[in-house]
Amino acid sequence: MSNRLFVALDTPDLAKARALATKVRHHVGGIKLGLEFFMANGRSGVRDMAELGLPIFLDLKLHDIPNTVAKAIMALRGLDPAILTVHAAGGRAMLEDAKAAAPLGTKVIAVTTLTSLDGSDLASIGCSGDPHEQVLRLTQLAKDAGVDGVVCSGEEVAAAHKLWPKGFFVVPGVRPAGGVPGAFGGDQKRVVTPRAALDAGASILVIGRPITQAADPDVAAREIEATL
Ligand SMILES: O=c1ccn([C@@H]2O[C@H](COP(=O)(O)O)[C@@H](O)[C@H]2O)c(=O)[nH]1
């Protein structure tokens, strides 16, 4: 994959998603569609976006019992996204069944610890250890379960990559250097720059608001691309 930047199109509005993707298409390597988009537009919306010719990353972060997740993935048949996410916290059997249910060409990627969480958030949900330890624990689980890779922040990707040299590493929580700290609501707590994430071993970067909320998304994507 020559351009490792995926733009997160977090909108329920199909026309807006298409317009944004059309603007940035020459400066990104793929399009990430999440729950917000899928709930509003479903399969036909994904098909519509696929017409733009860029790889589709369907970020549904599935998390349920193994049978339910496997059936949900089977129900996506025909869309065949390049990348699909599930939560590693669903456990080994769920991860194994998710991978078995996915089409051969779809990478099943396990979310380890959301980039919006820090150590105190983990403690509040009963997880001992810091995000680094939790990411490594779940990366090992994902590797053992036979999925294709994990989502983690740029702060942990070097260690996760060392644990799993052949894994595929998706890194969100990416903010261009020189941005305003805490911009875009400050919901991302484990944040690195695009360059730092790639240098640490990210396979692809996911960037949403720094592009989609820019005055000129095309320029924003181009400026980020130039740093990669
Ligand atoms: O741990 C995670 C997993 C997924 N995401 C998703 O990435 C984008 C990030 O958007 P920004 O606007 O660049 O913050 C968004 O779609 C999340 O759902 C994540 O941020 N962290």
TrEMBL record:
Keyword tags: Decarboxylase, Lyase, Pyrimidine biosynthesis
Enzyme Commission numbers on file: 4.1.1.23
Domain spans labelled Orotidine 5'-phosphate decarboxylase: 4-224
Keyword set includes Lyase: yes
SMART domains: OMPdecase
Family recorded in the similarity comment: Belongs to the OMP decarboxylase family. Type 1 subfamily.
Protein name per UniProt: Orotidine 5'-phosphate decarboxylase
